[in-house]
Prior knowledge:
By secondary structure, the protein is of the alpha/beta class. It is built from twelve helices and twelve strands. The strands form three sheets. A seven-stranded parallel β-sheet has the order 3-2-1-4-5-6-10, with helices on both faces. The chain has a three-stranded mixed β-sheet with strand order 7-9-11. It starts with a strand and ends with a helix.
Amino acid sequence: MSIKGKIVIPGGCGFIGTNFVRRIVERVGELEIVVFDKLTYSGDFGNIKELVEKKKVRFVRGDIAELESVKKYFAGADYIVNFAAETHVDRSLKEPYPFVMTNFVGVANILEFVRENPVTRFLHISTDEVYGPTNENNIAKEDSPLRPTTPYASTKASADMLCISYARAFELDIIIARPTNNYGPYQYPEKLIPLFIMNSLLNRALPLYGDGLYIRDWVFVDDTVEALLLLLERGTPGEIYNISAQTRKRNIEVARKVLEVVGKGDELITFVEDRKVHDRGYFIDNRKIRALGWEPKVSFDEGLKRTVEFYASREDWWQKVR
């Protein structure tokens, strides 16, 4: 289907949201784009400011956890792509309630709007962490059981279940995307790769939890954005799609690669006390979205090089958002 009409993008000033907004402005014509963002610590209006000034995007500051705001500012939406979320696991272990409000209550509010209004498609962005720890002998498919282990993952899994129930009970066009770990430009500095890059640039220690052998599957943000655009256009209503580049790296490998690209030595790697809840690895199957014609195009080496170049040239940006 062709995308036209009005699209509302909650969380469009965050990391993946920013990259999605920039891409959809380039790629899709005849589209009214509204970014709806609370602008918490990890959302930066500056990421899309020039698009707003050029009148390519309209910005509304708002909170999806407030139902009346959703009803007011989502009015007339043909498409909704929801990036709005609290995402940092460490924060969820210290203060879980904001995760409940945004990740679950906020999604419930959007679903109520979709139920009451003629929305063409609602694309909800979830995470691979809803499956809980997996390994090479237990690779998660879209219909695998959900076994979240942190407040962050639990709120995302709860929202997923709510989306599935609304899709079935009310015959709504809802799609869930579950990407693996993303990296690239505009990612908030508390996340692993931007933290390692900035610390390397500042000649500071790169902190590794535990033994540094935790495994994550990394996908460059541009590839994720392409997958989401494909789902918006050609995804099957009511379905879930894993988004994975099958680029699995141990955290210590990532640290060493960042240091290599920046031109610093391994002596900056520092092992720190592990956090209480830390899933050993995430392994997910991506054959379902590949069957739609998607495949990752950016290798880890190339993506990391581009990410380092962004942070090295945009110290003004990351010093501001820190």
